[in-house]
Design a protein that fits this description.
8 helices; mainly alpha
Amino acid sequence: MQTLAALCAGEQNKLFRDKVAKTSQYLAKILLEYAHEPETKKMLSTLASNISMGRRIYRWGQITNSTESLLKLLFYSNPQSMTVFLKQLILSVSYFLNHIFDMLCYLYMLRVQPDKVVRATFYAQLFYFIVCFVELVDFVIPVVNNVLKLMEGKRGEDKKKIQKSILDGVLNSTKRIGDGITALKDVVPSQFEGRNMTVNVGGFLSGFIAVCQAFPGLYKK
């Protein structure tokens, strides 16, 4: 009963729904690669396309969040160092531009302007890739540092904390690598010709890890 209540609460959580939708979208694309029946292929293709459109519509309002974050960083933040400030600035600007071009892409789709859709998608995914790269570096460096600490022979509670940090870092890194791969497909499509499965698996892993990480939070009131 508690699990059912948690899942129902999750259905009201837009971020959680988007993670589930992303996982379903790329799972449908993976199954599409193995489907043989024309009807099955059509069903899976339509499902993936509709979920993708639904996620794009959901992201429409996220520009308010990225705008707010950028303004807070520029006018109200007190960063510890210039390096931290520049990193946060790159992330905030990239998120903001990603949302801008994502919105434009949807508008061009509604107006049936495929050339402009491709162009807007390119820039949206380019800035999203920048986000993924910066955050990936942020995840990888602590993992390396914690592995070095384990090699020093840490024991007891410290060892458990370090192991948990390494696991979290590896999962977050894998998630960002998957996101980065899906973004790169639209930035340099020529490099991913014939590699649809790689992109689809990357997107599925990213979504699945995000769902697993978010699931325990559904129980928190």
